[in-house]
Structures are given as C-alpha cells and as structure tokens.
Amino acid sequence: MRMREIGKRAAVGFLAGVIALGLFACSDGKTALPKGTAELGKIQAVTRESKSGTRASFDDLIGIVSEADGLTEADSTGKMLETVKGGKAAIGYLTQDALTDEVKALTVGGKKTDDSGYPLTRRLYLVYKGTPSDLEQEFLTFVTGKGQAIVEKSFEPVKEVASFLSMKPAGSLRITGSSSEAPVMEKLAASYMKENPNAKITVETSDSGSGIRDALEGRCDLGMSSRNPKSYEKDLLTFTPVAKDRIAVIVQKENPLSDISVDQLKDIYSGTAEKWSDLAGK
Q: What is the percentage of the chain residues whose pLDDT exceeds 90?
C-alpha cells in the first residue's frame, strides 16, 4: 500500500510540473499547446536591428544560420517592449535587466532567466584598441573589481568584488555602444567619478556594432558590446568581459504560452514555424 501511495504522489507531482510549463500530452504522444495559443494565428516575430549585439547573441544561442524574411525590427530595447506589448501574436527578446511587468517573460526549456543553466546567456564587454591610457586602465580595473557590486544588481558578475584605491588620473573617457549595457555602464561611470573627481566619463547609447567600430576607428575610448567578438575583431581589439546577461523571451501578457524551447525559437526566427499552431508537437 505504501509503494502504491508513493507512486500516486509521484504521478501527481509530475502532472503538476507539466501543467506549470503549460504543456499537455496528446494521445499521439506529441505535445499540445495551451488552450488559445493556436488561435493567435500568424506569429509576429520581433527582432533587433542588424547591428544589435543582442540580435547577434540571440541568433547564435538558438542556432540561427539564416533568418526568416519579414521579421519585425525594433531598433531599441524600448521599441522591442512597445512592439511586443501591443501585438497579441508577437514574440521578442531583450536583456533581462529591461524586463517590465508590461509583458510576459517565457521560461526557456523550463528555465527562468535567473535559474542556473538558463540557455540564453551571454557576456557583455568593454572594448578598446591598443594600449589603454592610465585612466582607461583604472576604470577597467574598477569595473572588473569594486564595480562588480554594481554589476550584480542588474546582471551576473564575472569576477569577485575587490577593493579599489584610485590614483586619480585626470582626463575624460567617451564610451559608446550597446543599449543593453549602457544603463549599468552609466551607474559604473557615476560611481567611479566619485572615487576619481579628476575624471569625466560620458556614456552614449547606440548598438554593439557601432561601439566596436567606434573603438576600432578611434571615435571612442571604450566601446560597449553585448555580443562575442568575431575572429578578426579579436586580432584588432581587446574585449574585456564585465558582466553576464540573460536574454529574456517575451510575449504579450495575454498570450497563454508560458514555456518555449530553443528549437521552437529557432523554428520561429528561421521561418520554419509561421503560425503559433506550427509549434504543436515540438
């Protein structure tokens, strides 16, 4: 009797887990979508602009080789939120730090963005060319040391928090690039300037491609990039990791879906799945 009761409890626990993911087994052994998902019709897949590091990282993480035609482009994190919030059949993605309660974040393969093993994880970098100046080097030391206490409020740190004593080098730094990285970099810059009042740091938001190009062409002192460097870029520039970020997958709050797999995301953004009903059985 005791073994039978344990078996019942295990079955109930398994069913609860399946329901929590919003997945239901059909008689043919395939997985059905939550009720109302198929009725959303054609998927509106929203992506970032071509130079976005978030787009490059997302495509790489889900294994996209060639994107589908007709994707909706959002040229900023704010535009991504606005587009998905206003589209009942929309799906998109953004940095975890930009999530709001105006949209729903899906679990990916059953993992929440702050779970260990979440599959859509990337690194954020500061990029520079040549030998850094005293001010540039000290700011990099601050960001990867004491500044990690600021980083961990928004992202996962890449190093342990360390003590810091500024030598107060004078000068100015211009930092440009990734819109995902810019908000935390503004906080880091403000904190560093309290340590070193002789420094003036400005942070300008564009995209990862522009940040890398600005660093390469000398239009900024440090570039911000939210994607991994390409092989030729590693030969020309130094990429210093400053944080680990999770890319959240978002839908409108009324969308009945709660979980999605990496393979389903690949199908959506490669054009294999054009309608929400195409995700059934995946």
A: 87
Which neighbouring-strand residues pair with 48?
74
- Cβ atoms of residues 200 and 104 within 8 Å: no
Q: Where is pLDDT greater, at 217 or 28?
A: 217
What residues does each domain of the chain span?
Answer: 1-32, 35-120+247-279, 122-245
| CA distance linking residue 14 with residue 16, whole number of Å | 5
For the chain, what percent of residues have pLDDT higher than 70?
A: 89
Alpha carbon distance 154, 168 (integer Å): 27
Please answer whether residues 97 and 243 qualify as being in contact, where contact means their C-beta atoms are separated by less than 8 angstroms. no
CA distance 169 to 132: 13
Residue 23: what pLDDT?
47
Partners of 45 in the beta sheet?
A: 91
Task: Give the domain 122-245 fold.
Answer: Dipeptide-binding Protein; domain 3 (3.10.105)
Amino acid 1: pLDDT:
42
CB 136 within 8 A of CB 128: yes
pLDDT at 17 over 90: no
- Residue 23: burial class (beta carbons within 10 Å; 0-12, 13-18, 19+): middle
Rounded mean pLDDT of the chain? 91
The architecture that CATH gives domain 35-120+247-279 is: 3-Layer(aba) Sandwich (3.40)
pTM of the model: 0.85
- For residues 216-225, give the mean pLDDT: 98
d(Cα 54, Cα 28) in Å, to the nearest integer? 38
> Which residue is listed with tokens 């589209």?
87
